[in-house]
Amino acid sequence: MKKFKYIYALLMLCCTVVVAQQTPASKQSKDIAIVGATAHIGNGQVIENSIITFSNGKITNVADAASISVNSNTMDIIDATGKHVYPGFITSNSSLGLVEVNAVRASNDQRETGNIKPHIRSLIAYNAESKVVESMRPNGVLVAQISPKGGRISGTSSIVQFDAWNWEDAAIKVDDGIHLTWPNPYTFGRWWLGEDPGVKLSTNYTNQVEELNTLIKDSKAYLKGSKTTKNLPFEAMKGLYDGSQQLYIHVEDERGITDAIAYTKAHNIKNMVIIGGYEAHKVTDLLKANNIGVLIGHTHSLPNSSDDDYDLPYKMPKLLIDAGITVGMHTGNVSNFQTRNLPFYIGTAAREGIDKEEALKIITSNTAKLLGIDDRLGTLEVGKDATLFISEGDALDMRTNQLTHAFIGGRLISLETHQTELWKRYSNKYKN
Amino acid sequence: MIKKYLFAMLLMCTYTIMAQEHFPKNDGVTSKNTNYTAFINAKIYVTPTEVINKGTLLIKEGKVIASGSSVKIPDNAIVVDLSDKSIYPSFIDIYSNFGVKTPERQRGNRRPQYDAGREGFYWNDHIMPEQNAIDKFNFDNKSASDLKKAGFGVVNTHMQDGVVRGTGALIALTNQGGNAERILDGRSAQYLSLSRSVTSAQVYPSSIMGTTALLRQMYYDADWYEKGNASAKDRSLEALIANKGLVQIIEAGNKLNDVRVDNVGDEFGIQYVIVGGGDEYERIADIKATGATYILPVNFPKAYDVENPFLANTLSVADMKEWNQKPINPKTLADNGIRFAFTTDNLKSPKELKTNILKAISYGLDKTKALEALTTIPANILGKSNMIGSLKNGAYANFLITSGDIFEKETTLYENWVKGDKMVIESMSVKDIRGKYNANINGTSYDIAISGSLSKPSVKISSGSSSLGAKITYKDEWVNIIVTDVDASNKTFTRLSSRVSDTNNLVGKATSSNGNVTSFTANKTGKSENKKKSSKKDTTTPDIVPVTYPNTAYGFETLPKQETLLFKNATVWTNETEGILENTDVLIKDGKISAIGKNLNGRGAKVIDATGKHITAGIIDEHSHIATSSVNESGHNSTAEVSIEEAVDPDDIDIYRNLAGGVTSIQILHGSANPIGGRSAIIKLKWGESAENLIYDNSPKFIKFALGENVKQSNWGDNETVRFPQSRMGVEQVFVDYFTRAREYEALKNSGKSYRKDAEMETLVEILNGERFISCHSYVQSEINMLMKVAEQFNFKVNTFTHILEGYKVADKMAKHGVGGSTFSDWWAYKFEVNDAIPYNASIMHNAGVTVAINSDDGEMSRRLNQEAAKTVKYGGVSEEDAWKFVTLNPAKLLHLDDRVGSLKVGKDADVVLWTDHPMSIYAKAEKTIIEGVTYFDLARDLELRAAMKAEKSKLTKLMLQDKNKGLKTQPVKNSKKQQLHCDSE
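^ inputs. structure came back:
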């Protein structure tokens, strides 16, 4: 009896280990149709009572349900009447898969040492089996750009989807862009640490900007040469000049944004996106004139200054959208686990008076556009990846964000997680 | 050079010997000077309020013999005629560190120091009543001279280091007679502060509430020691006891600390003299209520440099207002009948004193009050009114001779006498040589114009149409002028020298560039055109923006009033058996919920149409760290003696932001730095009220406990391995140990035998007796279970587990124990111990019968607790009605406040929120947040406040730019970004 118990315990343990991460779904083998749902296309449009079909991982139809008939013999049909379908939500500048537990240093791979390191690549450290990554899916967050942090040029990001065996499987776009943190024009004393509370023009700013100018000049010169002695950082800059990679400039303040735009123009860098942009609403004309989009910070944050409107972070998207800027969102400044609140960041933005479908674009088509993956993701349109989900209700509101199905590239993924398993285990414990 | 120095030394020695009458004399005959000096025809300020016109001041041997209008002048008197001049008692600075060097900060050890570094003294290194400034005193000639030039005659100096700093010494700034003459009192006062000593790295106290708690315990310990209960020697306590009779001067440093230290003093019958921060005008009613006398700094901030708009944008309206308003501080205290003295402490140099006092006067401070603050009040504080601060008979002859009103810009301070020792600052006999002259020297005619100050004039010389380079020096009755020759190409000079005479002309010799010396006479032709324009001084009264409550962004000029309000046709979330009522009215009256029902009629009520809107009870956050100056006292593993009530900060902008999120009550918990933390402050977010008015009346008593990684310092860095406990095993023993000792303490106390009062033990006894409740920071199931078992062992119940992220694993045990769970909605993965935290926690605990609340521990999340509650609907399917109770009624229950708040029930406090939408919808906004019938947040008024602030900021910016254009100095703008405090915050 005792022995049996022991074996049973061992078995349980094994099971627990085995189910610690969800097994990636297999390829879509049969066509699927989702019928009757309200389809939020992601480009501002809505189709009530829609039909969406997909085949081999790609969307084949998006239409009014009345206009197309489906064959239940050749297709799996999901009746989603009364439910809502959304394109998979996309975030940017995330550390998901690079950090498992913030306070455990051994589990933290988001920051390499050094200052100029475009050659550092996030993708190869991305842990496709992270329990935190898995917990994104039940909320509809299915795709993210994973970026390295730290230093002036922190490295090269890649874009991944959240149901994979390994990073190669996960990759949607490899090495999509380089991340540059713009120098701060000001120095701020941390008065609570006894420092001079003064805000001053940084004496280093000019030098730091000049260092960035030099980097571009040096790497361009290098790339034209024979490259007999390889220079890894210079090599890694190549994509910026041939247009294959984007430059993501992390900058919050008005002057920094203005200077960063001048910098990219001076060096003829075409694909630049701003990450952050706390004061972007003050330079919307400039952004618009240069056709530059902003991946703004999440909305569940406090204003920077005691004098700012209490709701400034909430209404930031509205301020930019009203000015005609393409607004996406980044979650580089939240703990990884909070990234699953991405839809609620948008719901909060919508309460400030943006049309809900317009707000939805922030984490669907707009972010896809700004990340350069809008050919595959971001909307429910024919030809795009069938990366989408069905929710019981409005996915931007926590009460109704209840997923019944989620697909990545047509594959029906599990919505279970480490957390749902513990939930079930302990709910059962108390059921007598 | 060395010779000079030796000579000076010798001189000083001579004086020293001369002054000491009981010393043997070996260098000559006795030559005691018993002459009188009589100052006649002066306007004499005997005291600021007793002024004699054309009076006589008679002094002898360093003391005032008589002052009055008909003083008989003895024959052996030297008579000084001071017609048109004034005599004032010289100033006193009673918060000085003159001649007492503050020690250098010790280079810290990498390992933290928890125990005292001294032996035979108090258990805390920062308590140093045994320190005596006099032992470390060295007369500092340079500083003395600077102070005397600013008008000071006496300073009370002390060692500016430590929480208790020991005795000060009253020093006369005389150069005559050495320290024997200078030291008026070697034990003049005892000094205290809220700052740690730089000489010790002992961690405790690390917070404001730790410091006030330390002071309390120190007084308890002194009482116990004085009664002879101690078996070991404690030189600090002995000194403290010996210093009891002295005036107690404590540096508080700002308006909030002023009140905090006064509260400590009240408990022990000590009325401290409080060194304030100059911001007292912002909470003047509270300051008045302390009944204390204040010592005020007069360092008014310079305007901020707002030329660069990017930089100027980071400046907060609070800092701008501080610049604009701070000079009204002395006037505001005076208007409120609060006594105060001035100190030069915090000034870069005593030189700045006059400018700043003139500024305060131009902002409305009465000159008599200003003079009192520098003379009679400091003297009175020290109980030395008969000696200093006035020119009454018998007082020391410490006085100033001025050309007139000492608080006028143009007035010259001629002489500063200390104990009859004269220091000439500006000679009274300087002949006024200013004017226009003409001289003919070697055939060249010169027009000479001398202007500027009396003793340091400037000169302009021209010859014909060409103006020449010229320089003048005027010293000891000799005028020397150097002037370039008319033919400038030669770069040659003529030098003039003249001794002033009775005539108005300058007569002397001219040395030309070729070395020839001739006589010259410069005849005075007229008065100099002194730029009288400048004396058309700023007569414009300063433009002062109104003080608001709090005096920050979004403050109120007048606090909003309680109203009778009738909300019509709302969806009402009662949290009672009635559930959610549609199309229902709510009447609020006298701060209470007066009626809930259909078609209510509130006579005289302000009617608010709430159609399509929702009304709920205000949100209650069980776990908050906003509105406090400090969160953790991390200096000991148990700090039950500290209370966040002593650290409440009513000016925190997060109060306003929380109101905008529908929050009306919060528990400000101590942090999680130690297993037994500090006591809570439970407050209502009455934005604008004082700290004391925020705290609940008859507040339930709570204390923070903590478990796990934080208390065993897992994430504090590799050096933090000294403090017990370092493991969960140790954490249990901390509790067992403290509760065991608390029982023994109580038994001893009840036995009637003498005992040492221990604030920590008193608190723990309250827990054991069910009078104080624990809210315990907790994560993993083992430790949760452990604390319940410890409590059961000591026959009490844990009230609340806060965070309680693995509560779902022991929900059955929690229900059985009867403890509540106050948890995060969805936090996890930020540290090792939250790996198994799940967002379903609330629902599982709720289903198991535990009273569940959702808390924030975060100033951002707290303003969206309605959304956090909604997450429990998503994760685990809690009903909306129950989910809403997680942030209202349930935290009220956990805080033992559900008889007053947490639901909409007739008779309960009218703490309600009007929502634009379903309160748990992500699209809902709090439209009005009301506490006890007072609307503290209102969407429409918020817009008005924004507009008003914008206008005020542009006005203040304009004023600052005007200051800069006037040539006044500015300072760089300050960073207004605030530090957010959490559980782990230091």
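Chain B touches chain A through 71 residues (CB under 8 Å). Residues 939-965 of chain B form the longest helix (27 residues).
thumbs up if we can close this ticket
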